[in-house]
Amino acid sequence: MPRGIHRRSTLSERQRAILEGLSRRHSTGQQVALRARLVLATVEQTGTAVAAANGVDRDTVGLWRARWAAAQERRPPSRHRR
User: Fold this and answer.
1) Beta-carbon contacts of residue 1 (< 8 Å; ≥ 6 apart)
2) Would you tell me which of 15, 44, 58, 59 could form a disulfide with 11, CB atoms 3.0–4.6 Å apart?
3) What is the pTM of this model?
4) Please, is 44 exposed, middle or buried when counting C-beta atoms within 10 Å of its C-beta (0-12, 13-18, 19+)?
5) Burial letters 45-59, b for 16+ CB under 10 A, else e
């Protein structure tokens, strides 16, 4: 992705709840928690702002935003269970 293009992530309520849980859970590894926080933050902020707030490079934010998006594309449609 070229620099200067601001892409924001989109999350369903379920995805948001899962990522928030990962970022808050005490048993979650710090790397996983950071990645969850990065993806959550990209919904409302630019990659540069997210990077500055979390003490990481903006390329790191872009990497995890892209990996999240790729994982969502590979995932089969969810089925509603009763």
Assistant:
1) 7, 62, 66
2) 15
3) 0.78
4) exposed
5) bbbeebbeeeebeee
Q: For residue 34, which amino acid is it?
A: L
Q: Where are the domains of the chain?
A: 13-74
In whole angstroms, how far apart are CA 21 and each of 7, 10, 16, 74, 80? 24, 17, 8, 22, 21
Distance, in Å, from the CA atom of 53 to the CA atom of 58, rounded to the nearest integer, reads 10
Q: Rounded distance, CA 25 to CA 15, Å?
A: 15
Backbone angles phi, psi at 45, to 5 degrees: -130, 160
pLDDT in tens, 2-49: 555 556 677 889 999 999 999 999 999 999 999 999 999 999 999 999
Question: Token pair 């989109």 is at which residue?
Answer: 10
